[in-house]
Amino acid sequence: MKKHEVKVGGRYSAKVSDKVVVVRIDGENAHGGWDATNEATGKKVRVKSAQRLRGAVHKSKPLALAIPSQAGTTKEAAPAVDVGAGAKPGAKVAPTAKGKKPKAATPKKERKPGALDAAVQVLKTAGGGPLGCKELVERMLAKGLWKTSGKTPAATLYAAIIREIAAKGKDARFHKTGRGQFELSAAARR
After folding, report:
1. Of 13, 29, 94, 163, which is least packed with CB atoms within 10 Å of its CB?
2. Domain with 71 in it: what CATH number?
């Protein structure tokens, strides 16, 4: 909508908190936009721009059933379905597709070790000496601990190790010993 089309006292469908609801414009706001009332809940809302308003709602439409279509006109919404025992009165449920059963939960698959887990395994078998990321990646790929099709896997591993050290501090599995050289921390050796 355009700003000049908005009238104080008018009823409009507006996008409020990611939902399209019917609001009544109460007046202009000193900081721009309009003060309005959500007619479904009675709460005061501020409509900051005319772009939030979707179109005028006619008085002949019931408040809860006036929903704008893409063309700007209103159409009737699907009636509310009562959910039955144990639910709040007036609760709505979206109609389900006929003949479809809900999907059963799929069991979680075993996770493949990531680059950091593979690097820990390589450092444990390396004999305790520090290794560079390029050497770590070569050993991880040779042993089949990690697969990648990236162009710079050593840089990826380096960034991941640095992130872990920064995030976990003393609890990190890695310890930086020199320029680009890492070894297992005391906590990871246990």
Report:
1. 94
2. 2.30.30
Model confidence pLDDT, tens digit, residues 89-126:
555 555 555 667 777 778 888 777 789 889 888 888 88
Please write the tens of the pLDDT for every residue from 151-177: 999 999 999 999 999 999 888 998 898
pTM greater than 0.70 = no
Q: Are the C-beta atoms of residues 188 and 173 closer than 8 Å to each other?
A: yes
In the chain, the number of structural domains is: 2
Q: What is the C-alpha to C-alpha distance for residues 25 and 118, in angstroms, rounded to an integer? A: 61
φ/ψ (deg, to 5) at 23? -125, 150
In-domain check, residue 109: no
Sign of the CA dihedral with 154 first, then 160, 163, and 165 last:
negative
- What is the rounded distance in angstroms from the CA atom of residue 55 to the CA atom of residue 34? 15
- CA Rg, the chain, in Å? 30
86 belongs to a structural domain: no
**Cβ neighbours of residue 68 closer than 8 Å, sequence gap 6 or more:** 13, 20, 54, 55, 57, 74, 75
Host domain of residue 154? 115-189
